[in-house]
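Example 144.
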Amino acid sequence: MRIYIKDIGPDGLELKKSILEKDLGLEKLPGIVLNAPIEIQGFVQKKGDTVVLDLTFKGFFSFECSRCLDEVERIIEKDFSLEYQINRSMLFIDIIEDVRQEVFLSFPEKVLCQDSCRGICPQCGINLNIEKCQCHKNSFQVQE
Ligand SMILES: [Zn+2]
Ligand SMILES: [Zn+2]
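Predicted structure in complex with zinc ion:
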């Protein structure tokens, strides 16, 4: 994702871009799917030999519930700023690596489909939000 320095005028530059899943390398993250291109919006300014970007990204993701592995859809929105030192010989800056970092850092550590998610039975694998299983009963019987 290149921003050409000549495009940053004295009044700055409005930035609006989309990022696709393949640009983020999201296929490397199990359990996370990008449902639509991530929208990046913001403003770029040149201050001396520094380029300052104030940006927001918005992405529509699917995560796996940490307990039952069901799909959980979430919209994540985050403001962030980036700064780059430039010199006369530079034609552009490439922000994709830093944007990728910001997106990855915004992912919640744990996602639950609902606070009261009952998860999956470790014995029979049934989703306990949908069905009840007999495992607990059976293990009781074995103990008796
Ligand atoms: Zn769940
Ligand atoms: Zn069970």
